[in-house]
Amino acid sequence: MLQVQFRASEPVWRGVEAVGKWYELYKGGKWSLGDETAHSDEPRTEENAPDKESDKKDFVSERNLALDPAEWKTQDHYAVMGLGKLRHKATEDDIKKAYKQLALKHHPDKKTSSSVQNQEEPGDAYFQCVKRAYEVLSDLARRRAYDSIDPEFDESIPSSDEITSENFFSLLQPAFESNARWSKKQPVPSFGNMKSSFDEVNDFYSFWYDFQSWREFSYMDQEDLENAENREERRWIEKQNKAARQQRKKEEVTRIRSLVDVAYGCDPRIKKFKEEERERKLEQKKAKEEAAKAAAEERMRKQKEAEEAEKKRKEEEEARLKEEAAAAKKEREAKKKVLKKERKSFRSMCQTYGNFSSSESDLPQRLEDIDFLCLALSAEKLCEMRTVLENSPAAEAKERFLSEVKRLKEEELKADSDGKSKPKTEDKFQAKTVWLDEERQLLIKAVKQYPAGTVRRYDVIAEFINSHSSESAQDKVGSDIITQIKLLQAADSALKDQVNRTAFRRFDKEHMSRPDVASAAAAEHEPTQRYDHQPWTGEEQKLLEEALRTFPLSLPNRWDRIADKLPRRTKKECVQRCKEIARIVQARKAGQQTFN
Questions:
Q1: Per-residue pLDDT for 124 more than 90?
Q2: Is the distance from CB of 437 to CB of 387 less than 8 angstroms?
């Protein structure tokens, strides 16, 4: 082809080098100037078809020839370099070799003659793209930035709906293998298979849940620092680029975590391990419960044995103590029985001598002396003294009795004056002061009048007795009250009978002078008579009592109704009979209230 340039000067002839697809086919012997098969629409056969490899190379070359160097940042640099299949796996030697081959073929110095060096060719733009691609891929940092946004990388994640136990490994293993290229830690644990152990699977998911990616997105910065006009604009660009990178990094972390979560949730090995773990825990729990049950049974058995042994020991100890207590009680009862018998015999003997009393006035004192001897002497000494007194005449027995009382009281007074302990007695209650019958009656009345719970009860009772007693020459205190109460509670029947008789005689002496009381007392020993001297029978007495219970005091004509129940008695006789019974009961209560 002849190209003519018109200039102001005379024309110059320049040579033109033949280039292009058809020229290369012609030079290679694949096509001749007279061959028209290249322009025909007939299908090619193996004989007339051009070389397939050469066709591919020429096609790539023609496609790359259309690339715009100004858009180099959006181009696939591996494809421009002819390394589209190797991509991130290409080594430095592969990149250098590919660039060298492309430079030998597409460098402007290799394609133009010396006569047309200033003329631009269409392949120059492609070589500019090759040069840009080489600059990116030959620099380690720039290549890593470009690899981070590799357009051929598949960032899709299989959904849990399309994953089954059959296609789990075929879908997820390639995804993990492709994403493993971003890991800072190498080597990456293998995805494994159904035969992988628990430790292998656990290590795999632990690695991916703590996945550290070196992927960074600086290559996708929208603003270029080189275009900044001043420092403020450069800082603003840096700020915008940094925010965009952080957002993309966050999305990348979320994508990786989603992939791991989907895999973990659908992994049949995890399900198998969880089932095995559940069964193992159930077995451990069962074994633990059985061990605890066995331990509890053993503990209960030992506890039961210990309790039985302790119970047996306690029973033996209780039996021994019971036997000792029974023996001691039997001994005490025997001694008490002997002492009681001796006291009773001694009192009976004293009664045969008239209680050694010469008159009724000194009888209470002699009774108190008898009680004093019974409390002060032991059973043996009482027996000895009783024997001596029984074998002595009345006068001599009385003298011996009084001398013994005097001796014991002198010993007691001497012991008190010397600050020594009192002589031992068989009874734990010993009177410190002399008590008259009137004082005992006042004590009984005061005990009922001031019951338990009264403030300073015994002092109040002592003051009551001191203020109401007319014969006592010695005031009583609280300790005297306590001692006398215990003495009366421990007294035998003979003393009780004697006190009752004394109280009844005092009642007769004080009240017999009154006519109504005298007639009531006489009525106690004589049968009740009507005006016609008819006594009250037992049947009439029973009817009277029933009528009294039937008709209450609130009835206005009560006695008339009571008399109607007794055909042989009048209203006046019924009233008189009730009054007589009331007097008799009052007299009996006065004599019995000491111990009631």
A1: no
A2: no
Paired tokens of 589: 């209560």
- Using alpha carbons, list the distances in angstroms from residue 163 to 154, 158, 189, 476: 18, 7, 22, 110
| Tokens encoding 391 | 């074998």
Give the chain's length: 596
Residue 478 is inside which H or E element, if any?
helix 478-490
> Phi and psi dihedrals of 81, rounded to 5?
-80, 0
pTM beyond 0.70 = no
Distance CA 490, CA 371 (A): 12
Rounded to whole angstroms, how far apart are CA atoms 549 and 41? 151
Q: 3-state DSSP call for residue 191?
A: coil
Q: Quick check: 536 and 523 in contact, CB under 8 A? A: no
Instruction: Report d(CA 289, CA 489) in Å as an integer.
Output: 66
CA atoms within 13 A on the CB side of 330: 6
Question: Which of 137, 142, 156, 140 minimizes the C-alpha distance to 86?
Answer: 137
C-alpha 567/C-alpha 570 separation (Å) is 8
* Per-residue model confidence as pLDDT tens digits over 546-564: 888 888 888 888 888 888 8
The 8 Å CB, 24+ separation contacts for 524-531 are 524/584, 524/587, 528/577, 528/580, 530/569, 530/573
Residue 449 has a pLDDT of 80
Contact (Cβ atoms closer than 8 angstroms) between residue 163 and residue 265? no
The answer to whether 64 and 114 have CB atoms below 8 angstroms apart is: no
pLDDT in tens, 187-209: 989 888 888 898 998 999 999 99
Query: Measured between alpha carbons, how far is 193 from 268 in angstroms, rounded to an integer?
Result: 10
Spell out the residues 6+ positions from residue 580 whose beta carbon is closer than 8 angstroms to its own: 520, 523, 528
Higher pLDDT, 21 or 115: 21
Contact yes or no for 256/248 (Cβ under 8 A): no
Structural domains of the chain ordered from first start: 66-148 (1.10.287.110), 160-266 (no CATH), 428-511 (1.10.10), 512-592 (1.10.10.60)
Cα gap 540→295, rounded to integer Å: 83
Q: What is the pLDDT of residues 375-420, one digit of tens each?
A: 888 888 888 888 888 888 888 888 888 888 888 888 878 876 765 4
Calpha distance 474→484 (Å, rounded)? 14
Nearest one of 102, 103, 81 to 92, comparing CA atoms? 81
Nearest Cα to Cα of residue 366 among 505, 462, 506, 502: 502
The pLDDT of 220-245, averaged and rounded, is 76
Tokens standing for 4?
A: 């003519």
**Does position 585 have pLDDT exceeding 70, yes or no?**
yes
